[in-house]
């Protein structure tokens, strides 16, 4: 799985960029300033836990990715690549992260059961409770990159 990378003792510094007008670095301060959400879910056969963080869609909106009414036409071919410290990558179509299209949350979590994530999981990770298999529940997230299909 994901091992040998920075953990919870490391500061949060996730690059958010790609085809967006306002790239930024997601830090603990930025996460704390954004709307917080909590989901209950179970990872890889583990007991259900409470994860807290910020919706990936909210992070992308802050970077200026098209959301809501702006997500139409060519923007519908936009996708998001989330990379982990060990090089593992997962992909989402932008519409599946927009509440105007999908009734799911993809959480960029920094807390589990009220505590910071463990070194094995964090400092931030993805929680995708709607996925039947937790293969996109990525640990140790280091970057979030927006791309347009065909580029």
pLDDT < 50 stretches: 1-8
Q: What percentage of residues falls in helices of 4 or more residues? A: under 10%
Radius of gyration: 14 Å
CATH class: Alpha Beta
- Tell me the strand percentage band: 35-45%
Distance between the termini: 30 Å
* CATH 4th-level superfamily: Oxidoreductase, molybdopterin-binding domain
Beta-strand segment tally: 10
CATH architecture verdict? Alpha-Beta Complex
In short:
The protein is mainly beta.
Describe this protein with a few key phrases:
single chain, 151 residues, mainly beta, Sulfite Oxidase, Chain A, domain 2, 5-stranded mixed beta sheet, 5-stranded antiparallel beta sheet, 2 helices, 35% strand, globular, disordered N terminus
Textual characterization of the structure:
The chain has 151 residues and is mainly beta. The protein has one domain (13-148): Sulfite Oxidase, Chain A, domain 2 (Alpha-Beta Complex), CATH 3.90.420.10. Helices cover 9% and strands 35% of the residues. The protein has two helices and ten strands. The protein has helices spanning 28-33, 56-62; strands spanning 13-18, 24-27, 37-41, 49-55, 78-84, 89-93, 107-112, 115-116, 125-127, 141-148. A five-stranded mixed beta sheet has the order 2-1-10-5-6. Strands 3, 4, 7, 8 and 9 form a five-stranded antiparallel beta sheet that branches. A hairpin with a 4-residue loop joins strand 5 and strand 6 (89-93). It is globular. It starts with 12 loop residues before the first strand and ends with a strand. Mean pLDDT is 91; it is low at 1-8.
């Amino acid at each position: 799985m994901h091992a040998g990378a920075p953990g919870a003792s490391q500061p949060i510094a996730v690059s958010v960029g790609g085809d967006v007008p306002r790239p930024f670095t997601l830090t603990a301060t930025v996460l704390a300033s954004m709307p917080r959400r909590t989901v209950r879910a179970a990872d890889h056969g583990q007991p259900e836990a409470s994860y807290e963080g910020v919706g990936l869609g909210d992070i992308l909106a802050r970077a200026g990715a098209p959301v809501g009414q702006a997500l139409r036409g060519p923007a519908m071919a936009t996708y998001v690549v989330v990379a982990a410290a060990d090089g593992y990558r997962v992909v989402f179509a932008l519409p599946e992260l927009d509440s105007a299209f999908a009734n799911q949350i993809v959480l960029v979590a920094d807390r589990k059961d009220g505590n910071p994530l463990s070194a094995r999981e964090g400092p931030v990770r993805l929680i995708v409770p709607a996925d039947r298999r937790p293969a996109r529940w990525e640990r140790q997230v280091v970057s979030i990159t927006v791309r347009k299909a065909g580029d």
